[in-house]
Amino acid sequence: MATMMIRNVPDDLKRELRRRAADRGVSMEQEARDALARGVATPVGRRRKPILDELRKLGAMPTEPFDLKQVSDEMWDEGLR
Predict the structure, then answer these.
(1) What are the residue ranges of helices labelled H in the chain?
(2) Alpha-carbon distance 30 to 17, whole Å?
(3) End-to-end alpha-carbon separation of the chain, Å?
(4) Are 16 and 24 within 8 A, CB to CB?
(5) What is the DSSP-derived secondary structure letter of residue 26?
(6) Which residues, including other chains, have CB under 8 Å from residue 81's CB and lie 6 or more apart?
């Protein structure tokens, strides 16, 4: 097995890692190994999409035409002003 050292870990990240390790009853080192293994084992297609991709979708043109007045009326009727 290989050895790896990770420097400049933010304090809040270290605290959270320590808390999770304590919750599971394992060492902080084991918790870090497990978290790293979970992250690397996730298939690329199933990883969470970057937020920028999601924001771009919000600004995309609609694929089908819609009646804005109808949408507004429906919102008004439902009390979603």
Answers:
(1) 11-24, 28-41, 51-58, 68-78
(2) 10
(3) 60
(4) no
(5) S
(6) 75
Tokens of 19: 């808390």
Over the Cα atoms of the chain, what is R_g? 23
Kindly state the tokens that stand for 20.
């999770």
Render pLDDT for 27-52 as a digit per residue (tens, 0 to 9). 999 999 999 998 887 666 666 667 88
For the segment 54-77, the average pLDDT, to the nearest whole number, is 87
23 to each of 7, 11, 13, 17, how far by Cα in Å? 24, 18, 15, 10
Angle between helical axes of 11-24 and 28-41 (0-180°, round to 10) = 100
